[in-house]
Amino acid sequence: MNMTEQRKKQISKFLSLILRHQPETIGLKLDENGWAVIHEIFEKSKLRFTFEELEEVVVTSDKQRFSFNADKTKIRANQGHSLKTVDLNLKPQTPPPFLYHGTVTKFMPAIKLHGLKKMSRQHVHLSKDKDTAIKVGSRRGKPIILGVRAMDMQNEGHLFFKSENGVWLTDHIPLKFIEFKPVQH
Ligand code: HQG
Fold first, then answer.
1. Which of 9, 62, 73, 160 is the most buried (most CB within 10 A)?
2. Pocket test for ligand 1, best of 12, 82, 100, 103 (most atoms within 8 A of CB)
3. pTM value?
4. How far apart are CA 109 and CA 161, in angstroms?
């Protein structure tokens, strides 16, 4: 199919809105694990798109943000929810020794006081590679990359989860596990 990048982005942003944050904007209901029935999205959405377009957005998403169920009747976001009611049922996993978080200067004073907080989302988001963290930070300006001693955290009882699309998630990162000048590990 020949969708423009602009069209894909428009649909992807709309899906992020209704599957992560505000399904009620179109009167949609997600189940407790975050799944939406696809024909309901088509019925309720003012933005018109076809199943083929939806499939293309899901398959070609740079970050693999969304998943279908086995028979492609339902869709959900793989991570990034601010909805408190969605439980993705992720099982705790052992993280690599070191993970990265991309942020920007204006948040540094608060981070140096409180550590990394999940803010409006369900988890703090981390990546195993520095490049991804650079991209995440760059959304807001000049990126600052922080290192997180994830294995040490786990050893002290903190839980880590990995989303379907490879994003590492945890509840809160206390200051003592953050390296403010991370070297490449
Ligand atoms: C910062 C995108 C003040 C934190 C990305 C971040 C990611 C603090 C911002 C995913 C803080 C929250 C998530 C503290 C952390 N005080 N600010 N104590 N602790 N912060 O968007 O990680 O493209 O909720 O550094 O690629 O930026 O949407 O989190 O800057 O994977 O699929 O508060 O969203 O994915 O911002 O991004 P966010 P994030 P998508």
1. 160
2. 103
3. 0.92
4. 27
